[in-house]
Amino acid sequence: MDWNPALIWLAIALLLGLAELSSGGLVLLSLGVAAALTSALAALGLTLPWQLLAMGVFSGILIPLAVKVIRPWFSPAGVAYGTTGTGVEKGHTYTTLKRDFDGASGVKINGDFYRLRVAETGETVLPEGSLVIFHHFDGTTAVVSHVQT
């Protein structure tokens, strides 16, 4: 088998597509599509500098398109993944829950259950349905205070 530049770009595209299966960020898939498009240009006979320029242009167009436009389609509305613990929840009001298997008191933040501790008293058990204000995380414990009614 004769390895011409078009086949090499196509092999790179397939490897990047496979690598995307482990990341899920759509960046490697975008690079794979850019490499496949570059493969088509290499099959037309473009020289290596033009191929590299084309790969850069395709990547510059496809990566922002995939990250800003396509990736949000795969995330539920209203959930800001990767922001839990950065302080964006500070001051928000949450309703306490009881966990089924052990009865622990906690709050759900971005879909995840966190045990709670009241900042003023150190309590870790509150009645289900109590309103609390989130302050910060102490490890994996949500430090909260009672809502003043």
From TrEMBL:
It comes from Billgrantia ethanolica. This is NfeD family protein. The lineage of its organism: Bacteria, Pseudomonadati, Pseudomonadota, Gammaproteobacteria, Oceanospirillales. The chain crosses the membrane at residues 50-67. It comes from the Bacteria. Keywords: Membrane, Transmembrane, Transmembrane helix.
